[in-house]
Every structure is written in C-alpha cells, then in structure tokens.
Amino acid sequence: MKKSLVFFMFILQFSFSQNIGLYNQFNGRYDFTFVGNTLNPIENSFQTTPAVLTTSSATLALNPNDSIESAYLYWAGCGTGDFNVKLNGTDITATRTFSNTLTQGQSFNFFSAFANVTSLVQATGNGTYTLSDLDVSSFISLHAQNSTNFAGWALIVVYKNPSLPLNQLNVYDGMQVVSFFQNFLNVPLNALNVIDNVDAKIGFLAWEGDSGIQVNETLRINGNIISNPPLNPGNNAFNGTNSITNSNQLYNMDLDIYNIQNNINIGDTSALIQLTSGQDYVMINAIVTKLNSQLPDARITFPAPILSCNERQLQINYIVTNNNSTASLPANTPITFYADNIVVGSSFTQNTIPINGSETGTILVTIPSNIPLQFNFIAKVDDIGNGTGIVNEISETNNTFNLPLQLKVSPNFNALDDLVSCNLGLTKGSFDFSEYEGSVKTNPGHLSTFYSSEADALNFTNQILFLNNFEALQTPKTIWVRIDDEQNGCYSLTSFELFTKNCEPIVYNAVSPDNDGLNDFFFIEGLRDIFIHFKLEIYNRWGRLLWTGNNNKPDWNGYSENTMGNNEAPSGTYYYILYLNDPDYPKPITGYLYLRR
Question: Are 415 and 441 contacting, i.e. CB atoms less than 8 angstroms apart?
Fold first, then answer.
C-alpha cells in the first residue's frame, strides 16, 4: 500500500502549496454540480504497471430549466505541469495554475491548472465532455516510486434556475495538502452569510485520495465530522468517489458533495474545514459552498464630479446598486460622504432597491477649507457617519467607493508695480513692461498675457503683442494681465497702472527761418500739449521783449511782435524765459538761442 512504505523509507517530508481562498461568489437562485473523470485506469496503489491515460470523458446532465451561469475547468496531475489541453476538441490554455512539491529525499511535483470555459459549456449544454491531450507520461516512473502517479479533470458548473431558493454560492480554490507528515489541515472559508441552513451543501474537488488507505482520514466542518455513507465513510472521505454519479471508480480524485445543514448555523459568516490523514496524501484543489441567503448587497459609485476653478462645492451624482444580491435593499439606507475621512455630507436611498436594481441620487457637498486641494473623496452606503451600518448585507466590505480628487484653483501671481513714463503730449506715453511677462508668474510653466481691458483679458481677445514699446494714447491707463494654468484650465487676473509725468523740456537753441525745413522755428521738445499753461518770452540782447508764446500759439520763427514796419529779428543772440506753470517746476527755465538768417 502506498504511503505506509514511504513512512519507513523517509524521515522527513516537506510540502509547498497555495492557500485556498475565495475565487468567485454568486448570489441569487444558483446551485452547482461537478462533472469530471480520472485518467488513472485503476487506483495507483494497485497498479502493477504504472499508467496514466491522456483522455477521458464525463457527462453533464442538468435539468431542463437549469441555465448555465459559469463553468470552470480544473485539470491536475503529477509532474511540473501540462497547461495546454483540449476540451471537446477545443484548445484550452491555463489562465491560473497551482502547484505542490513533496520532498522525500527527492522532489515529487504536482500541478493543477484552471481555465474559465463558460462560453464553451454554455454553447454545448448537456452531453458528453471529453478532456484530451493531458500528458504526464514523462513523470509516471518517478511518481510510481511512491504511488502518486495520477491525472484527472473536473468541471465546476454553476447554474441558475428560477425555482431555486435565493442562495449564496462561493467557489474557493488553491492547493493545500494533508498527509501522514502533515496530518492536520485547517481551511477557513470566509465571505459566508448564513440566513437559513436548509439544504446547505459543500462540494470538494480533491486529488490523489485512495480507497484502500483510511488511516485517521476525516473531514470536518466547524468541528463536526461529515460523511456520506456508504460512498464517503467518516474515516475515508477522499477515496476516489463521485457522489454526483454515485461512482467509486473515480480513481485518485474525488468529486463529492455533502449536506451540511446541521453543521452550519444561521448567522455564520465563516466556516472552518478541517482534514486529517494518517497516511493518505490528499490535495484539496477547490471547495464550493451553497447556502440559503436572502440579503441585499449595497454598493455605491459616482463619476468624477465637474470641478470649477476656486470652487469647493461639488455636485456628486451617485448610483446605489443592489447587484449580485438575494434580497431588496430597503429605503432609507444611509449614505455618508467623506473628504479624507471628514464627513462632508449625508443622504439616504429614497426607494426600495430590488435585486439587481439601482437608484441614482445627487448631493451638493462643500469641502472644508482645512482639507488640502488633493484629497480622497469617499462615498459609503449603509453608513450612518461613523462607519456603522444598519442593514445586514451579503458583504460588508464593498460599501465604499473612493476617488482621488484635486480641486482646481487659479494660479498665484506676483504683484506688479505701476509704471511711469514721460508725457508725450495730452497724457500720451510710451512704456516697456516686457519684463513683467516673466516676473508676474510664480510658476514658470504658467502662461501670462497682457490686455488693454478687463473684458479682453476675460475673453482672451486683442492681446498686447509688443510689450517693450506700448504706446498709451491717454493716461492713467490700466493694463490687465491674465495668468493661465493650462493644466487645470484656471486663470487669474491682475493689473497695473500706466502713468505719465511732465518731464523737463529739451530746448533746441538754434533757429534759421529760411523755410528749408530745418530749424525754421524755435523748438522745445516735451513742451506743447504737455505743459499746457506754459508761457514763453523772447528778448533781444538789450532786454527788449520781442515775442510771447503759449500752448495756443505757433512756435517762434524769428519775428518780433513789438516792432513797427519790418518785424524780422536780425541774426544774433536772443534770450528766452520759459514759465512752465507746473508745480513740479516752480522756477522758470532761462537760456539763450541763436538766430541766423
């Protein structure tokens, strides 16, 4: 017999595997069945010539109203793995794999593979399923040394039927081992919700069990031994049987379903599966539970809200769903909204939400000023504001939806000084503010543009293009600056003023009134239309006043206003007194000029 020999030959055994955990959950009018077959012609403990086949068949026979929801194919064997097989002639490649290594002086490898074959099984329906091209022949001779040469396959078929009660069906998988050297195994099953234990059942997909080895071999749930005699006695649970077909010739694999109505209690959210073996080497690959359940399952989601610049009030358009549930979600289920775990709003569902139904809602929330611009916005359904719910649900861990948000704010900017330029006449001035294009920005990545009016700045129109020679026709003049953060679409506006001042005039003291276009008049730059109240007096060298001018008279062209007859002033030196009549220039400007004819 296998394993008893192993005990005497080896002192130590090491086994490496993957813990069994929840793979998928179904809530509704669901049930399950197994379909599969071994590739061992006889149990490996009794093989005189070690052998494993490459193909075998099994039959799926659902009731007429059963509708296939999902179908999962598992195949396993000795060795490091064959992950490409055929199911009814269709190529199947593993999408998930499991492995286990038994070390007894040398390594004995085992593998299991998984593929979702729902579409194929839905299209085929009832009938014969043949798995082929599963080849472990290169590992048979090694594993025959301790009678662990095997291969096999199984389909876990989840189906829906409107006449079924509302159930919660969980599929768990992985690969864990119980054996002589690891003779106690605990497998906790979580994510349960037991409302009614009537017709509760559990199914096992296991590899390498032997009918002839029953040394301290037990299967317990919540501490109670479960059995299905005569097929699965309490002291030999994994013995090459298929309880769906009532066969005891499923050599070195088990497809067994047990009623656990009296072994699980209403209100349980988990169960503990315990296996023992004093000799047999058993690998658990998948476990399926079916429990009566009438619970809602509230979830909430929302799309990213529309963010406006400098706005901390958000409109949240949310949807509460009750999908994959077995009961309606009651009205007035509380909803709480958080910004970085700070409550910012609350609401309630308005109506009873049926199974697989949903309800939309809208809420305005204001994000407090002490919340940073970047934060997590969280919506929790079935939450009264402190993480506590009032509705018993299928899952209490999927009520939260979290979306990172970053509020949009207008860019910061540096204040700009007002500019002053010389009055060019009637308050006109020329200005250079090209340096302001860079200095106004606190972030070099921002864009700064300049405008003559606030309306232009707001509308992005009539941009001032030449910043180094801007002519203001009249001052004071406001220049508007728009600073854009092109990443978030926000902008800021600032402004500065342009002023002109009356600068001291420049006197050109040469006059030659010969109508050649050069110096025909006594020209003083920066005088006319600037010092509009000026008074200019021209004297000859003897101190006689010849001419008086102001902003309304033409410039002096060498003629005397106070001479009878010929009023041409002769060539020579003359003197002027210029009264600017400006508070910044209280003293007159005096000097001489030369007249040449």
Answer: no
pLDDT digits (tens, 9 = 90+) for 505-530: 999 999 999 999 999 999 999 999 99
Using the predicted structure, report yes or no on whether residue 312 has a pLDDT greater than 50: yes
> What sign does the CA torsion over 465, 466, 467, 472 have?
negative
**CB crowding 37-56: b at 16 or more within 10 Å, else e:** bbbbeebbbebeebebbeeb
- The encoded tokens of residue 538 equal 């021209």
CA distance 515 to 568: 14
Does residue 123 surpass a pLDDT of 60? yes
> Minimal CA–CA distance to 322: which of 294, 290, 345?
294
Q: How confident is the model at residue 113 (pLDDT cuts 50, 70, 90)?
A: very high
* Beta partners for residue 25, in sequence order: 170
CA distance 120 to 98: 23
pLDDT of residue 495: 98
Residues 65, 71, 74, CA angle at the centre, nearest 5°?
Answer: 145
What distance in Å separates the CA atoms of residue 197 and residue 220, rounded to the nearest whole number?
17
Q: What are phi and psi of 142, to 5 degrees?
A: -65, -50
367: Cβ–Cβ under 8 A, 6 or more apart, which residues?
312, 313, 314, 339, 344, 375, 407
pLDDT tens per residue, range 202-228: 999 999 988 888 777 888 888 889 899
Measured from the Cβ of residue 391, the count of other Cβ atoms closer than 10 Å reads: 19
Alpha-carbon distance of 77 to 94, in angstroms, equals 14
Give the predicted TM-score (pTM) of the model: 0.64
- 348-352: average pLDDT: 97
- Which string of DSSP letters, residue by residue, matches 50-80? ----S-EEEEE---TT-EEEEEEEEEEEESS
Quick: pLDDT tens for 289-310.
Answer: 998 878 899 999 999 999 999 9
Structure-block tokens of residue 122: 């839905």
In the DSSP assignment, the letter for residue 567 is -
Amino acid at 300: I
Cis amide leading into 230 (omega within 30): yes
| Neighbouring residues of 81: CB distance < 8 A, sequence distance ≥ 6 | 97, 99, 109, 111, 113
d(CA 492, CA 475): 24
Distances (CA, A) of 57 to 53, 129, 205: 11, 5, 17
Q: In terms of DSSP H, where are the helices of 500-543?
A: none
Residue pair 524/505 in contact by the 8 Å Cβ criterion: yes
Phi, psi of 122, deg, nearest 5: -60, -40
192 has a pLDDT exceeding 80: no
